[in-house]
User: Fold these one by one.
Assistant:
Number 1:
Amino acid sequence: MNYQTLKQWDHRYLWHPFTPQQYWEEEKPLIIERGRGCYLYDTGGKRYIDGVSSLWVTVHGHTHPALNRAIRGQLNRVAHSTLLGLSHEPAIALARGLIRVAPPGLGRVFYSDSGSTAVEIALKMAFQYWANRGESRKQSFIRLENAYHGDTIGAVSVGGIPLFHQVYGPLLFRSYEAPSPYCYRCPLGKKPDRCRLACLDRLEKLLARRSETTAAFILEPLVQGAAGMITFPPGYLRRARALCNRYRVLLIADEVAVGFGRTGTLFACEQEEVTPDLLCVGKGLTGGYLPLAATLTTEEIYEAFLGRVEETKTFYHGHTYTGNPLACAAAVENLRLLDRPDFFSTLREKIQLLEQLLKPFRELAHVGEVRQKGFMVGLELVRDRESKTMFPPELRLGHRVILEARKYGIVIRPLGDVIVLMPPLTIPRKALKELVAGTYQAVRSVTASP
Ligand SMILES: Cc1ncc(COP(=O)(O)O)c(C=O)c1O
């Protein structure tokens, strides 16, 4: 089909996610035809570096032979069979594989199909865990300011991004907000080198006041992704875990964005030796090939759901495509590829290279902060560096930067005025340099005349 027809039909029939359609219909859509390694190719054959891993999912690159083979192999056996009342080998193998590499203490895997559902399940499990134990006052949740955990109503109820979440207020259950460890714009007005993580004191106060009625505290470990790649100060996660223990509140770690190597270790929680009570994974679980997610939990939580049927302790939750065999087969292969002996040492070298490459951004007049954790980067654009004043949203500066970046053969997607770089973990060094250099040119030229 030619580009003009595709464009016309896109504008006529499609409604794109998280997209102001009014603007979209005025733009020429970039239509992707195929991918290979860290590259995407449009319908005209132009090549782009996939600078955000197709929305933070691609781990080993596109059309990876081993992942393709794993999916094809499973396709020849069965494309789908349910986990409701039946089982299948890819789901069993993957559950075992996940538990072997997950933070110690996690023992059970419950599948679903998106990050949002993995979170939804964690919230419901936490809620019902306490109910099943006869502590049904523990019903509410604590979350961070700027939190993003997905778009279903439960996940939105523990969300903290007003632009996305405020309108649904009347639909949501209440959750209590703890300050975000957003050091660049500290909500408590502290300086990072002297704050002693005062934001955790606020969390502690909240826990102390509400522990009797709180089921769980949910957070994204090490990086608040959709909030603008907000990187946590060291020690925050470990101390948050200790507080949850002290106040008998479950800890839900949402590793949907940070899992599978993104932060330089397989799971972000590893870096502070934390085992959450519930761990949510999605996105990179299949290497970025198919929709699959999982909620991992401890044997203790699992056991609270055992009992005779009349005790109604069962977890009555399950999506039709839960644990789809094709997706599980891809995920098993993903774990195998991540387990190669040199995978993380090579990644760590590239993380250091990325750190070096990002240095010139600090000199740009309109880059307020350069944030990096592993292969997650946020470049926060500001009108004035001194006062940290933001650009007016109607300028759509972040959006303009990503359109400019396409001229350099780069596909990226911003979070407001935070430019995100999150390439596939196997991106070659040369392409990584091109990605950063092209993004630099795009930021420089757009911010020169905002
Ligand atoms: C931390 C986090 N949790 C949950 C989600 C929701 O995942 P999904 O879009 O697969 O529903 C996202 C998506 O970006 C995320 O970043």
Number 2:
Amino acid sequence: MKPRVIVVGGGWSGCAAALAANRAGAEAHLFEKTDMLLGSGLVGGIMRNNGRFVATEELIAMGGGDLFKIADRNARHKGIAFPGHQHANLYDVHRIEPDVSAFLRKAGVNIHLMERVVDVERDGATVVGVKTEYGENLSGDVFVDATGTSGPMGNCARYGNGCAMCVQRCPTFGPRVSIVAKMGVHEAQAAKAPEVYGAMSGSCKIAKDSLAPAIQKALQKTGIYIQKIPETLVNRSKLSAKACQQYALPEYAENVVLLDTGHAKLMSPYFPLEDLRSLPGFERARYVDPYSGGRGNSVRFLALAPRNMFLQVDGVQNLFCGGEKAGVLVGHTEAIVTGTLAGHNAVRRAQGLPLLGLPRSTATGEFISESGKAAATEEGLAQSYTFAGSVFFEHMKEKGLYSTDAEAIHRRIEREGLAGVLRARLV
Ligand SMILES: Cc1cc2nc3c(=O)[nH]c(=O)nc-3n(C[C@H](O)[C@H](O)[C@H](O)COP(=O)(O)OP(=O)(O)OC[C@H]3O[C@@H](n4cnc5c(N)ncnc54)[C@H](O)[C@@H]3O)c2cc1C
């Protein structure tokens, strides 16, 4: 009989975990509380920038790269540069979700939309099932918590500027519920400074057709538009509040930086609408995510699971985690690589096989190791971890793990004996 792996949370990490479990031969179930997959991936779009290129190619070489290939196919712009970032692809946030959903369904993943998991059934320190809001129960062998860390509204009210009405849509679909917390495991909170908890999401989306035609044209052609802000409107304090420290550079405070992801992605956590509309070309600007982007954004990183290098949650042998739940990890790429390993290891656990740990000679192995260690220290909880910048990208470069040579990256994975490892059927 196939083991049953239950993944809770349908963001990039949950999609990756369910797909990896399915590929390894399990009956995979993916529970998502809203009516769409991808979570915050519905409003992001930046891929392959800086060290993310390496992580992407490593996962492809290991046989777990299907979701990256879908993102590449949905790219509106490829290989672009913007301040502090090189060779980025921007996927189209309007088009990608149906492709991911169709791909998972075709592979055989059982997707349960609008089914919020609100509790667990347990037998001591083992999870045996999940319960949904509407009274459905499903038992399973191994579980993955991929519920992310965005919201719920109470966190945005307490640690941010209030619910900014973001794509997570807590008022409609209910607050995030963590399986890790339901199992009684203590979750850590990121704190940028003593008693400054969580971090604010770092970008907003503006309806492109609310911008002047010349701005639309530049975005369409090059994927990027940069305009200087008058000194009176520069707010440098927003930089330190950002979840994505890879964009906490002066260029992002002193300019309006827009990227074309379908919407115009404004690289700022929020920007008062009247100030924005005072800039030439922005007179009619309208936010589409979060709706209250003039005032704030979602607050994240207040529910981080302690876990090991196999992404197994401390103290609960049959519970794994991926994405933001697995540390102060920012990014789609980071969610996909950790989600994939969590889903794969869930099947190994079910089959009684040794769990797969990625060596530190790979960028992904080093990332999982370093970000896991960081989440256990006050200093680490003040940072954010991403292949795309901040402390980890520097570390990658120092260790010689950064390269833009895809063939060399694939050869490294082969040398480590990891080529295709995530495609192997284990059942
Ligand atoms: C505005 C914004 C822009 C961003 N832009 C980029 C970008 O351009 N590039 C990039 O790499 N990263 C970007 N990021 C960061 C990136 O989106 C995230 O770090 C990553 O996608 C997180 O994935 P995740 O799966 O861990 O969590 P999430 O995307 O938060 O997904 C968690 C999912 O779990 C669901 N859920 C929660 N609780 C339950 C429950 N109990 N039952 C069922 N479902 C549940 C939620 O509805 C959600 O869909 C951005 C983030 C934001 C907020």
